[in-house]
Each structure stands twice: as structure tokens, then as C-alpha cells.
Amino acid sequence: NALANHARMQMGRAARQEAPGEEQLSKGERTRIKLVEAAIDAFHARGFHQTKISEIVEAAGYTQPTFYLHFRSKEAIYQHLVERVHAELRTVIEGARIPAATSDEDVREKLKAAIRAFLQYFVDNPKLAQIGYYDVDYNLGLREEIVALVSQNLSFEQGAGYCRQTLDPTFVSQCYNGSLERVIRVYLLSGRYDVN
Q1: Burial degree of 82 (CB within 10 A; 0-12, 13-18, 19+)
Q2: pTM of the shown model
């Protein structure tokens, strides 16, 4: 359920762990989650500029004063969504580093698992990812941060002997991320293919 999934991510738990049931959340937490879910749907459907707070609260089943108890403006809830995607993708990428003690035969599987985890985020969160990753006005910094994180992972993996020393980690990261962005937009978000 969307409330439980959002609560799990908000509380920093791993995506595959058990989330608390709705009954364990306070009324305020449930309200905030419903507002966030309605905002995701509205921003995805109409974009930031065309979405109105009145549409978000109506979809969530609340009033505008309730909205303002949780967010000071439309910009604030949008920024909340962008920051959520940034934090969640950062966690996925930081978890993708291959440990130095990994055997040579396991490196390929670990690389595939890392790519699959990144792509799976977009499959699991298509509307949110579209808002938090592809909105040009807000997310160029995220893409640059992802390039830097992947570049750091590649440098670490070069030091561990998993990648050729002659590779430029930043160049490879730019190519890798550009390719993944295209795969995500054209194939995953459109539903033409799944991660596997």
C-alpha cells in the first residue's frame, strides 16, 4: 500500500524490509503521506507549473489549511519530493560499491546487481522518479552528483583491481549514466521492458 511504502522510505528503512502498518503511524503522518502521494500524482500528470494546491488537497481528501500544516507552499512539497528522490538514489548508488574482498568470479554478478538495483528504483517509483530525476529545472545537480558517485565507485573498484587503470572514471561514469538515463526513459518508464 502506498502509505506503508512511503512510510518505509521516509523512515530510512531498506525498500525490502517490512513497513509499519498504517495503524502504527500517527494521524499527522498518515495525512502527510496522503498529501505527498496526491502531489506525486498531480505533479506527474500536470507538471509543477500547472498543478495547484487545491488539486493536491482535493485528491488527498483534505483542505488547504491541512496542507499548510505540513508544507509551507507548492514549492516546498515539490522540493520535498526532489530531495526524497535524491536521498533514495544516493543510498542505492552508495550501496552499489563492490567490496574490496569480492572474488573475481563474483565481480560481474555484483556489477549486474548494482545496475539492476539502480534501474529497479525507477520501475518501483515511476512517477516520483520522473519528478525527482528528469525535471530539468530542479535536477541537473542530482545527475552531476550521480556521475560523481559512480565515478568514485569506479575509482575504488580500479584500486581493488576490478577495472582497468587506464579508464577515466569520470568519462566512463558520464557514458554509463547517459546510457542508463536513455534506457530508463525509453524502455523502463514506458513499460516496454522490465529490469530483467
Answers
A1: buried
A2: 0.76
